[in-house]
Input
Amino acid sequence: MISLIEGAGIYMLVPMLSVVGGFSFDISGIPLLNRLAEQAERIADAYRLPLILLIYAALIVSQALLVRMQQNQNSRINQGFIAALRMDIYRQLLASKWHFFVKKRKSDFNHILTTELARAAAGTVQIMNFLTSVVFTVIQITVALMLSPALTFLVLFCGAVFLFFSRHFVKRAKLLGGRMTDLSKGYFAAVSDSFNGIKDIKSNQLETTHMNWFGKLNRQMEENGNLFTRNQSLSQFYYKVTSVFLIVAFVIISYEVLHAKTEQLVIIILIFTRLWPRFTALQNSVEQMMSAVPAYRGLIELQQECAEAREGLVDPTKAREEAFLLRNSIVFQDVSFRFNRDEPQFALADINLKIPVNRTTAIVGRSGAGKSTLIDILTGLFQPETGTVLVDGAPLTGEILSAFRKSISYVPQDPFLFNASIRDNLMMVAPEAGEEELWEALSFAAAIDFVQKLPQGIDTLLGDRGVRLSGGERQRIVLARAILRKPSVLVLDEATSALDNENEYRIQNALDRLKGSLTIIVIAHRLTSIHNADQVIVLDKGTIIQQGEYRQLSSEKRGLFSQLLSRQAEAL
Output
């Protein structure tokens, strides 16, 4: 519609020029325009020009309003598309298996959801602009053909030649776009690594090393950006130079070969000046779209990888609301697992284990023995390569896994806190928790004393990853959050490793009080902290080599557990 109105506006210039006496233009052979001229002749001379000007002005104003509406509509379409794409990618990421995240850099996800998504959005805008330019060009060509087919075909031939020789710039834009994707991904990784390790950088005076490393990457990005700009500016330069020669050739051929009339030539040149920029606009749009192709490819590849790595869970929106209440036991039957199935080394091999309900099970062993991997399989983050995990006799898959996850509270060795207040961090797992429940959880985790001493108490902001708290304080807040969830199974992965003896003793007493009402699974290196465990599992090189009560295993002098216990006693 916009292009049609603009074409009509140019069409209206013919009778206006005739009315004002600028040209004596024979329009008898031009469709529609001859009828408009006949109607205009019936209007009194005094009103003819004002009426034509009014119609022309109305067309231009209508076009301006439609352009505004089109821009707003395009924005809604584009933003709606990007918002839907952003949500879809984030949803697919959250639904992917843990193993998928183990193999990927977190910075790559940040890069995809920010830079690449923005480039895809810009590419979408260029696609809409390209389609708009195509429609406009077709309508303008139609108008030009009505005025002078010969001159119009000359313009089209020139445009086709220009686009043909511009293919090099399109290919170059696509190549530079791909390089920009790689550099941008590296940039995100560099920034993420630098600030994740900022404490090490500062304490070891590595600022100069990181500045040199970052400076090299920064120069590469600068060079690539300049190359892309030079590619666009060169194509624009060729366009302007070509335009000059084409206009000169156009006028000469029109006069000398086609014998065009002056008034006809003026209208055609007017259309030429409107039509020719559309060729370069199409060229620019294609270059921009090609530069965004790597971003689209990255998004599509990520979606495909997420689909392949999707967990076998039911749709969270359709999953049953209640958590799984463990009534009997968790059983590992001949479970084996390796991170890379192309390698012979197993992280866990032939694991047979029974974890009884409402008992405390401790898992110990040297570093790298497979303790955390065993927990990852128990929580369903990893699926066994062979064997089965049974929860109350049912395989830990599908709806059972989804419900079982809701019944677990997991406290990792490296506790994670969101950049929010203590209250917000706690209520993320229990949005309906009251004030009394929050303080009870903090009391259980021996955190109530230091929380009360903070400037804003429980409403104190913790900073990125809880940086304003010490390691032991972060562990206690995460433990309080785990308890607040009221789980059926509590998993503690070295959850008290950063605590002093006094606070560890208080938490151990609190955990002992939960015995008989909660299934507790503890990974521990400090063996004195598990003396009240109902059973101890000793792992070594991915296999269970000892299993029994604490006193029983400590009395087996040749066993690994006794050796580890003796070494810790000697270290004290």
User: Anything to note?
Assistant: The CA atoms of residues 148 and 268 lie 7 Å apart.
